[in-house]
Amino acid sequence: MVFSDDENSFGKGRMIEPNTFESKPGRPVHYFTKNDLIKQFKGFNVIKTGKIEDEEEHGENSKHVHILRYIFAEKTNI
Questions:
Q1: How far, in Å, are 20, 50, 59, 78 from residue 5 at the CA level?
Q2: Of 24, 47, 68, 76, which one has the greatest count of Cβ atoms within 10 A?
Q3: Which residue segment(s) compose the domain that 34 sits in?
Q4: CA 41 to CA 72: how far, in whole Å?
Q5: Domains contained in the chain, number
């Protein structure tokens, strides 16, 4: 699973390269589109991709939801 380009923090902070932003000094984060994620699995048979919401808690009153992309793939014989 990876951060989606639909994540609330996408586009915030200093842009390092396309779809990669430094929200805090020394903390670059890359956000994937569906096509970006599929390209990372060249040579694989992509079975399914999708998005999920993942709630994260940072203490008593600090919750937020991440929007993550996932991929299920199997290695193909090349």
A1: 10, 12, 25, 31
A2: 68
A3: 2-75
A4: 10
A5: 1
